[in-house]
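Ops channel
N.P.: pipeline sanity check, posting one input/output pair.
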């Protein structure tokens, strides 16, 4: 992490990309890294393992059900809900 960016590695495809993040999020990322210091993943489960696609999908569906969302929601739909200022 430097210059408000994170490098994301896709080990399956052998590629990586740079994602830029907002300044105020750096504080939260640093705190999360302190809590999960022994994990090699930034986005990980509470057991410090990498998040698998089916786990993320189940988590999104579970939270959609909690807010009584009647739509069939999936993680990709979250990409369409982002707003940029």
């Amino acid at each position: 992490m430097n210059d408000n960016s994170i490098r994301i590695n896709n080990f399956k495809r052998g590629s990586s990309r740079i994602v830029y993040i907002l300044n105020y999020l750096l504080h939260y990322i640093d705190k999360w890294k302190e809590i999960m210091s022994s994990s090699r993943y930034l986005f990980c489960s509470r057991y410090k393992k990498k998040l698998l696609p089916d786990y993320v999908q189940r988590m999104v569906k579970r939270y959609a059900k909690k807010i009584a969302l009647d739509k069939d929601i999936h993680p990709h739909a979250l990409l369409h809900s982002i707003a940029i200022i």
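N.P.: looks fine end to end. The first strand starts at residue 5 and ends at 10.
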